[in-house]
Amino acid sequence: MKKEIIPSLLLTVICIVFFSGVYPLLMLGIAQLAPNHGEGKIVKDNKGKYYYENIGQKFTNDNYFWSRPSAVDYNAAGSGGSNKAPDNPDYLTDVQKRIDTFMVHNPGIKKADIPSDMVTASGSGLDPHISIEAANIQVARIAKIRGMDTIKLAALVKAHIEAPMYGMGPERINVLKLNMDLDTFK
Fold first, then answer.
1. Are strands 129-130 and 161-162 parallel, antiparallel or unpaired?
2. pTM of this prediction?
3. Beta bridge partners of 173
4. Closest of 166, 174, 167, 104 to residue 134, by C-alpha
5. Any residues with CB less than 8 A from the CB of 89 and at least 6 apart, and which?
6. Segment 69-95, tens digit of pLDDT
7. Per-residue b/e over 79-104, b at no fewer than 16 CB within 10 Å?
């Protein structure tokens, strides 16, 4: 009995020390290498409302650039994906609904031209970015609703292109920043 209890207690103490002290400090150290040292960057819009720049926000009004869909409805307390396989009937139904909705709000767009990030949620459900293609495909709708020149609006999109973090991944656009500038854009 002594052979089992002492190693079990020792392993318990080692795990408590590691997972309660060493691991959190290690993660904190790694976070210091990230932009803004792992802290959420807070921005204020022209109406005085505060947002986290690095957490996806829900934009579904036609006069704004739409965000990437979220399986958790942009709830940062419950980050996660749908965990449904690509061939799951419920998942396929959700994607088809998103495609249909996108096509209704963006007439003249072909189904094949819709970027995948406009109809599929990210793994976290909190991705604040969309692809350049996803932003550009929405320009005509927003320009028409806001009475703006499409060339000027396309230039605004181009001005918001962010380089990949640490040179990895595709270029992207932060939807919150773009929409905040869109409200002040003349």
1. unpaired
2. 0.78
3. 130, 161
4. 174
5. none
6. 988 888 877 788 888 888 999 999 999
7. beebeeeeeeeebeebbeebeeebee
